[in-house]
Each structure stands twice: as structure tokens, then as C-alpha cells.
């Protein structure tokens, strides 16, 4: 529990930290702060936490803006040795097998070995989730193309899927659409 | 779709990166096509878009809380890389503080997160936020104070933990 004189003072500290108090109220808070270390710490924490939050928001927004720009797909990093279109289905089937094979207490082997590579349960879930998310984005982009104003957005989505989810089968389909649909519009 | 940059910024403020944020926004765009608001003015359309986007972001935020429990390690690593490439003003903000605030934002209740983002990232005032969220301005201000104190409390705990180590 944050040390504070009382709730009314704590709430005024927020407005004080934001410079939103009247001169009279601000002076009263300043007088209080001169004698209360706990409230001084609170004001400092309010300012630092807001500054940190703004950095995080701006950083996230910048990543979003960069992701929206056309990119050339980087070299693909295959995370499984299974070949072809059955990769995502194979992972789902493997996960299903794991769940059905689990003992009543639902404990799961820490690792599953397929071929030459050992997979943890978390890695399987992540890979399956990524494949699913990429496919969902692909389908949604295809739906957007049905609207006259949606083709530009769809092409942007194809580019994103092709770059951010390059290790999934949906990326193959997205690249194919970029070459056909988006090239027809003069984009790539 | 001239609202796109603003809504994308809002989604980023709500903690959704490019994939999840754009996923949410394309759903919003599809819903807009079905919204019987063709004859509404720009301001009504804007409010509708903001409300739908906020609600969609809150739903995604809650879903991600559950998903994060499974892949939290990978997410934390990605956030650490983002922090390493961040450009903080001065060098006053420690990486640990950023991570503490990042986690606090993720755990913050949606009813507090939305006004916090709208006020301090989208730079809307309490009246405007109230119109978007259908709340009285006084309630918006109360929620803002609670959200700010929540974040500050997380940093205070971090400071107390660091002091205890010394």
C-alpha cells in the first residue's frame, strides 16, 4: 500500500504532478510536501511512471508505423523440418496427440522430439498460434479486397504477413497475392 | 480511411503492437461497412470509431493477458529488445523501470487503461474522453487519478525492493 497521508491528498498529488492545480492549491500541496517524504516520493513516482508510459506508447506506435511500411521479406527462418503445406496441420495434430496422451493430471512431457529437433510445449503453442494468426490475417485481407476501398489495406496486410510471419505457410500465400493482386495495381 | 493513423496510434497506446493492433483495426473497418451510420456527420463517425476501437482493444487486451501466461518469456524478450532500441529522453529512465511500467500497463484494468491512453497519449481532455467513453468528466478524472496512482505504486515497489537489496 503506497504510503500517503490520505486519499484526498493522494488525488491532489496527481493533479499537482500534472501542473493542473490552481495556484492556491498548488501552494498548499507544496507546503505539505515540504514536511512529507512519502508524498514527495509519490510525486516523483507519478512523474517517472508517466514518462516511462509515454516512452512505451511511443515505442509501440513507432514499431506499428514501421511495420506498416513496405518491406522486403527477410531470409526465412524455418522453425520446423516438416515440409510443405502440412506444417501447420502437423503441429496441430501433434499438439492434439499430446493432449490426448496426457495422463489424468494433465502433465505433459517437457519436450517432444520430432525428427532431429526437440520442441517444448511452449514452442509448439507459439508456433501453432503464429500459424493461426497469420492465416487469420490472410483471410481477413482477402475479405477486405471485396470492398473497393479495401484493396490498398489488403495489400498492406499481405506485405505485413509476408514479412512478420515469414516462417508460416500464410506468408507464401500472401506473397503470391502481392505478386498478382497488388502488382496489378502497380504496388509490390 | 483517413482515421487510420489516429486509430492505429490509439491501438498502440492500448498496448497492441503492429500485428494485434492492425488485426483489431481491420475488424473495426469491416464493422464500419456494416454500421447504419452513413448519414452521420464526421464527428459522430469519429466517436463511433473511437468507441469501437477502444472496446475491441480492451477485448484483445484481456485475451492477451491469458495468452501472455503461455508465451510470457518470448514476449518479455521482445520487449527487452524494443527497450534497448528505445530513445528515452536523457538516460534517467532505467530499463527496469520501463519493464515495471510495461507490466503494470498490461495488468491495469481496462476501464482505467482506456482513459489513461486517451488522456496522456492521444492528448484528449476529460470532456472529450467522457464523450467517447460515455462517462461524466468527473468520472474520467477519477479514473485517471486511480490509473496514475496505480502506475506510480508499481515504481514505488520497485524502489523499495532496490533499497532492500542495498
Topology diagram in text:
The complex is a heterodimer of chains A (about 190) and B (about 170).
Chain A: H1 7-17, H2 23-33, H3 37-68, H4 87-101, E1 111-114, E2 117-120, H5 121-144, H6 150-164, H7 169-184
Antiparallel strand pairs in A: 1-2
Chain B: H1 4-13, H2 18-34, H3 42-84, H4 95-107, H5 110-120, H6 126-133, H7 137-165
Biggest interface and which pair forms it? Answer: A-B, 47 and 55 residues
**Strand fraction of chain B:** under 5%
> How helix-rich are the residues of chain A, as a percent range?
55-70%
SS strand fraction of chain A: under 5%
**Would you tell me the overall average pLDDT of chain B?**
77
Shape of chain B: globular
What class would the helix/strand composition of chain A place it in? Answer: mainly alpha
For the secondary structure, the number of strands of chain B is 0
Question: Which terms summarize this structure?
Answer:
heterodimer, A: 188 residues, mainly alpha, two-stranded antiparallel ribbon, 7 helices, elongated, B: 7 helices, globular
Written overview of the protein:
The complex is a heterodimer of chains A (188) and B (166). With 188 residues, chain A is mainly α. Chain A contains seven helices and two strands. Chain A has helices at residues 7-17, 23-33, 37-68, 87-101, 121-144, 150-164, 169-184, and strands spanning 111-114, 117-120. In chain A, strands 1-2 form a two-stranded antiparallel ribbon. In chain A, β1 (111-114) and β2 (117-120) form a beta hairpin. In chain A, α4 (87-101) crosses α5 (121-144) and α6 runs antiparallel to α7. Chain B is an all-alpha fold and 166 residues long. Chain B is built from seven helices and no strands. Chain B has helices at 4-13, 18-34, 42-84, 95-107, 110-120, 126-133, 137-165. In chain B, α1 (4-13) packs across α2 (18-34), α2 runs antiparallel to α3 (42-84) and α3 (42-84) packs across α4. The longest helix of chain B is centred in the middle third of the chain and has 43 residues, at 42-84. Chain B is globular, with a radius of gyration of 17 Å. The N and C termini of chain B lie far apart (54 Å). The mean pLDDT of chain B is 77. Chains A and B meet through α1, α3, α5 and α6 of A and α1, α2, α3, α4 and α5 of B.
